[in-house]
Structures are given as structure tokens and as C-alpha cells.
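Exercise: predict the structure of this protein bound to S-adenosylmethionine.
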Amino acid sequence: MITITSSLPENPITYASIDFTETDEPRSTDFDDVYFSDCGGMDETEHVFINGCDLKKRLPASAGSLSGNGTGPREYLIGETGFGTGLNLLTLMRFYRLLEEEAETLPDITFLTVEKYPLSPDDMARAHRHFPQLEKESKELLQALFSRPLHTGLNRVVINSHFTLVLMIGDISDCYSRISVNQPVNSWFLDGFNPKSNSDMWSLQSMKLLVNLSTAGTNIATFTVCREVRDNLREAGFTLVKRRGFGRKREMLTGFLASE
Ligand SMILES: C[S@@+](CC[C@H](N)C(=O)[O-])C[C@H]1O[C@@H](n2cnc3c(N)ncnc32)[C@H](O)[C@@H]1O
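Solution:
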């Protein structure tokens, strides 16, 4: 079982205040940026993060690698920077549900993520209404996540028999420097706001924290190919590969940690 512990204090939280645009899309007033793409947030998540991290291959392969030896399916740890509306998690849950129909075995998923400005239950539900295909997943997440008060530091939320969410509330530099995990992160979804307005999410210091929680073979995906992000990821130790981007973006970035 994946065990994650944190030495951060557990204090009451206040929810972020966010705006909704004319088309009812959530927008951060602090960062003057949108939470998801206006040309198909769920499709972007699938393209950038799920395909970018090769999960269609990696999930069945990681379960298959241990099947038959009596230990059961291995657990797969996905890390994220920036939980926001939870859209990446919902899209992943739907992807998993569809993949279950064709894959023999799949590992259970722990989704480790961080959020400095958590959305209120009402704002999160309102953001989810853009995605009727994710209604089932949204219901499950909202029910599990807000069944008791959230606090700063580590919030462990069992969503269903295959998904556990570990939501760290606080700044990335505190949260990811003050946790211990008994298994390295297998794949990272790097999803801060625009690096120009949200540089601490993409700093070298933050990228090094991700490396500390990773191992050889850990892979990453992100929507941005911004020069500073590439430099920081490389300096932290990732080998990078550009791929075709989503929508109006020509390119996106994937990468992995090579063995030393
Ligand atoms: C692009 S949004 C994430 C979108 C999200 N993955 C989704 O599915 O809706 C980036 C998120 O990072 C959070 N964030 C920004 N700076 C942060 C920091 N220093 N530490 C932790 N979270 C941060 C923002 O509040 C925001 O929710």
C-alpha cells in the first residue's frame, strides 16, 4: 500500500475566491489565468497528461509486471502540481473506467497533488458542470472530498475502490519538501498556471522537489514548452522530448528520469 506522511501542521483553511467568465469558465483572480483550456479542457487533459505520460501503456504494464506472483496488482502513483478544479483527476478516473474494459489488470491509483488556493465545494461543482461526460466522476469526487472539513497539509481521501486522492493544501515548496512517500511517483502532471505569472510552481527548486519524490523511469508531461521551464526541468535531471501540443499550442513537453 502506498503510504504518504507529512510533517506540515493541520490548520483550518479558507477557500480561494475565483471569478467565472461570461461563459461560466472558472478564472483565477490572483493569477489572471484560466483553470482549463477554452478549446476543450477534458480533451486537453487527455492529450497532454494522459497520453503525454503514456498511461494507456504504462498502467496495464505496471500491473502486469507483478501479476501472477501472488502480490496482486501494483499501485501506481501519479503526482500533480496544481489541483485546481480537479479536472485532471476526473478525466483520469474516466479514462481508467474505459481502460478497465480492455485491460486485464490495472493498478490502483494514488493521486498526489498540491493546492495553495483550494476551491470551495460550490465553485468546484460549478466548474465541473462544463463536463457532462464526467458527471459520475464529479459526484464521486465531490462527495468524498467534502465529506469532512479540509485542512492545511495532507488530506487523504478515498474516492472509490481504485482511486485515493492525497491533496496537500499549502505552497508547493512546503508541501513537497515535507512529505515522505514509501514508493516513488511514477508519472507527474505538471499543471501550474502560466509560468510567467506563476513562477514558483515551475522554479528549479520545485522541480528538484519533484525529482526527490521520483526514480529512474518516472515520466512527466506538461502543456508548456517555455524556455525557463525546460531549463529548470533539465537542470533538475529530466530528459525532455517535445510532442505535438493541444489546440492552438504547437508543442508540449514530455520527459523522464534516466537511470544514472
Ligand atoms: C492551471 S491550475 C490547475 C488546473 C487543475 N489541474 C485542474 O484540473 O483544474 C494551477 C493551480 O495551481 C495552484 N497553485 C499556483 N501556485 C501554487 C503554489 N505555489 N503552490 C501550490 N499550488 C499553487 C493554483 O491555485 C491553481 O489551482
